[in-house]
Structure formats: structure tokens, C-alpha cells
Amino acid sequence: MLRKIAVTDLVVGMYVVDTGLSWLEHPYLYTEEGELRSQVAVAGIAASGYTEAFIDTERGAYANTLSGEPGGEVSLAALLARGPVTPVAPVVPLAEELETAKGVYKDCLSTAQAMLRDVAAGGEVDIEAPQALVNEVIASAVRNPDALIALGKLRRHDAYTFTHGVNVAVLAVAFGASLGIEAEGLRELGLAGLFHDLGKTGVPDAILNKPGRLTPGEFTQVKAHPRLGRELLETRGLPEAVLRGVAEHHEKWGGQGYPRGLAGETVHAWGRIIGVVDIFDALTSRRAYKEGMLPTRALAVLYSMRERDFPPGLVERFIKFMGPYPVGSFVRLGSGEYAFVRGSNPARPLSPELLVAFDAAMHPAPRRILAAERDGKGPLAIAEALDPAAYGLDPLDYLGLPAG
Ligand SMILES: [Fe+2]
């Protein structure tokens, strides 16, 4: 489909079409046909004084990723086919962004808590505060996505219901950005993440917190939560994509999910992304009745689910995004020393930036910052990931600190 758009809305991957309109009559129309290959090319068009261009929404790498039409469908397959977005170096160093992100994260938690309380008391869902906060989450993720991801480790296990929503929103936004999803889509994803389990306010706590197996009757009640969530949000003027992200986050690729048993590509892309992120956060969360799983282990579990439960390529991309050792991981090195992962390295996932903090006897050591060796056998290579909580350590006490 041909669309005329302002050159300020052009993005890399769009396919510009020469419609044959006369240059003399339309001097501000950019007509050089072909796919826009770089940000420099895009910026150059506006800088040359053009104001409009025709694009073909069915051609070029951008095709079918985001239609831009209200209520338009996003093709997850097209997003995944587009390949990894070149990782951009963080705009702000982690230690600095952590300070800002802490405030954003705290605001998210209190907003999520208030929202659940209001809805449980029969009130309407407030969407104003969440909308403002999701914008702040996106801004922080653009400055340095590691900060908010590391903050997820602050979670208090007694506050799972609302920390989970916040963590899913944060992870979905950061993962979505790595897939090249544009701002409007990220806003929808963030809101869908924050609201995804809102419908659980309609399920009794005794069922939600039951450590053992649910009876078939109890499971039927749990299975209603995506639909209940959608119903609670439906009258609030949110985009349909947000409602579908909420309603479809437990649907599975093979059709064995709930509540509707939708299969394959009928499920909205936001529902799929929330689905992956939801499971990762649930597995790595500590609850009253279980320890949190290490990220490496949780990613292995997701990998084992990839063919049956998720669209081709989605889990693989999520693993690539998180890396085997996300920021905040606590690891033992080949030398026997212990370190925290304080910076991701998307190009070399086995070689993240480390803060060495303890010697082989677990005594505090002079702190040094270094990149892990990639060869798994070297003294400075990561030998294994460990649970910092088992050692009574909070990664956040170390991430913001300089070496020495
Ligand atoms: Fe859920």
C-alpha cells in the first residue's frame, strides 16, 4: 500500500517510491526510489529540504513490522526476520542511570500497588499515572536498559503481585526496543506489561498463592484472568493493542494456552512478547514458597518451551537480548574469585563487564573492573553463575560503585 508521509516520519528500512509526480509541481517531494538503509540517509533527506515522500508499506525491511494505522496489526514474524537491531552504546553510564532509574522503579511500584488496591476495591483503573510512568521507563531504557533490568532484582518476595507487573513492563519495553519496535509500540507494550495480570484481582488470593497443584475448578478460575483484565480496561480508552497484549499473554503457539486456545499468528505480537517476559520473571522471582531461579537456568527452561509454546525465533531472540549473565548476576571466575556483572556486552555475551569483589575465600577483595575472558577455561572467565541471595549479597550495593 502506498502512503504519503512527512519526511520527519521516515525511518530506516522504509521503501520510498517514485510515483512519477512531476518534480516541478512537487518540489518538496522526495522521490529517489529504494529502501532507506541508514539513519544518515534518513537525516539527509530532511536536511536537503524535502518535506514529504511516498512509501510502499509492503516493501523494504520495515514492511509489516508496524503498520502505523490505528488498530493495525504488528507482525512478530516480520519483526524477528528483520534481524538484531545494532546495539547502541548506552547514552548514560550504569552507575548514573541507576540513580534515576531507582526513582522511576519506585514510582512504578507504588503506582502498581495503588492500581491493584483500587481495582480490588471495585474502583476504576487509573490509566493516567501508568501512561506517564511508561514514558519514563522508555526514556530510562533508551539511556541505559541495564539499569531498570538490574533493579528488578530488588524485588521483595512478599510484594510479588505488583513487582511482577512492573518487571514485566520494564523487560517488555527493553526487549521490544532491542527488536526495533518504535515508540508508540513500546508505550503499548509497557502498558500491557503493567496491566497484564490485573484480572487476577478477580481471583481469590488463596488460589493465587497456593503452593501446591490447583484443582481443575481452581485452574478454571485462574484461566479467566486475562479475559477479566481486558474487561477491566475496556472502557478506559486504551489502544486495542494494549487490550490484546493483556488478553492474549497466556495463549500458546500450539494452541494449548488460555483463555481462548488461540494458535499461531492469530495472537497479537504484544501478547507473545508479554508471554515470554512473564515466564522469565515468574521463574526468576523468589516467592514465599520457592527460591528464584538463576537467569541462566530460566533461559534454559524457556528454550525447552520454544517450539511448543512460542513463535519461531522469539525465545532465541529473548535469550540473545538477556545474555547468559544479565547485569546484576553474581558469578565465580576460573580463578576462584567472585564478581558481579555490571555491564552487558551484546556483541560478546560471554564477556560482560565484571566487578570483582571477593577473593576465592569469599573475603572482600580490592575491587577491579574487567571484561570476562571469553574462553571458558581462563582465570578471568565465568565458571558459574550463583545466587547472590544465598551469600546474603544485594547486587545493587555493588553496581553503582566505582572500582577500588
Ligand atoms: Fe498472567
TrEMBL record:
PROSITE patterns: HD, HD_GYP. Signal peptide: none annotated. Residues 139-334 form the HD-GYP domain. Transmembrane segments: none annotated. InterPro entries: DUF3391, HD/PDEase_dom, HD_domain, HD_GYP_dom, HDIG_dom. SMART domains: HDc. Residues 161-283 form the HD domain. This is DUF3391 domain-containing protein.
